[in-house]
Write a structure and sequence with these properties.
The longest helix has 20 residues, at about 75-95. Helix 1 runs parallel beside helix 3, helix 3 packs parallel to helix 4 and helix 9 (about 200-215) packs antiparallel against helix 10 (about 220-235). The chain has 11 helices and 9 strands. The chain has helices at about 30-45, 65-70, 75-95, 110-115, 140-150, 150-160, 165-175, 185-195, 200-215, 220-235, 235-250, and strands at about 5-10, 15-20, 50-55, 100, 105, 120-125, 125-130, 165, 180. The mean pLDDT is about 95. With about 260 residues, the chain is α/β, with parallel strands linked by helices.
Length: about 260
């Protein structure tokens, strides 16, 4: 792919998508968002088992690029936000687990990206913020994903104050899975993603899809969905192989 703002590399089973606008703190311009959509779409359609989202330069992502917004009319801003939503939805719908590799600040829509990824590992020097609360343009859309990670009271604090929280706070609040020294960030990302991609790829893809579907439902409806999917998937080749291998005390052989 010919992408201006994103680098895509592959190492064995993992694709790394790197936001590559360090001079703009990886701000999410319309063109940058479209490059990310193309990169995630291509990775999602590939035989990769996992996807890493990273950022070049000192900052993970500073969120929306105000250069796109400052003089834009409402229609143009809506297009920008709709494109951002398309990216967030794509991250949740690609079949592979997606992990954010957060090495620096992740603010506003950059923090939204972290919250949207399935998993996140942060360097201990990283920081997270929804700074619109202390300015004139509130972080309405970023807080949709962020609040669903950290809960109502902490979301309100983050959104209203605009304060930056540390990586340790982000871990305590449930925004990231692990915090490690910067020198160990790549190893921690690879380790967690490696564990998250074990087993049948088809089973994992179905599991990811059902996880997000049931999270949006009331508990009774969620159980109805999960019960149906679990019963149906018990008949799959992957399920049969996994159970057979367990009962036979052997390593499973996945066809996918």
């Amino acid at each position: 792919m010919n992408l201006d703002h994103v680098l895509v590399t592959r190492d064995a089973d993992f694709v790394t998508i790197t936001m590559n606008r360090p001079q703009r703190r990886n701000a999410l311009s319309l063109a940058h968002l479209r490059d990310l959509i193309d990169a995630f779409g291509d990775a999602g359609d590939s035989d990769a088992s996992g996807i890493i989202l990273a950022g070049a330069g000192p900052v993970f992502s500073a969120g929306h690029d105000f250069a796109d917004v400052a003089e834009a009319d409402e229609s143009a801003v809506r297009t920008l936000l709709d494109t951002c939503l398309q990216l967030m939805e794509l991250i949740e719908t690609v079949p592979q687990p997606v992990i954010a590799r957060v090495h620096g600040l992740a603010t506003a829509a950059g923090c939204q990206l972290v919250a949207t990824c399935d998993l996140a590992v942060a360097a201990d020097s990283a920081g997270f913020a929804a700074p619109g609360g202390k300015g004139g343009w509130f972080c309405h859309t970023p807080m949709v994903a962020i609040a669903r990670n950290i809960g109502r009271k902490r979301a309100a604090e983050l959104a209203y104050t605009g304060d930056t929280i540390t990586a340790a706070q982000a871990l305590d609040w449930g925004l990231v899975n692990q915090v490690v020294p910067a020198a160990g960030l790549d190893a921690a990302v690879a380790g967690l993603l490696g564990r998250a991609t074990r087993g049948s790829r088809a089973s994992k893809a179905l599991g990811k899809r059902t996880l997000y579907q049931q999270l949006s439902l009331p508990e009774a409806d969620a159980y109805q969905l999960a019960t149906r999917v679990m019963a149906e998937s018990s008949q799959s080749a992957a399920a049969r192989e996994g159970m057979s291998a367990f009962l036979s005390k052997r390593q499973p052989k996945w066809s996918d």
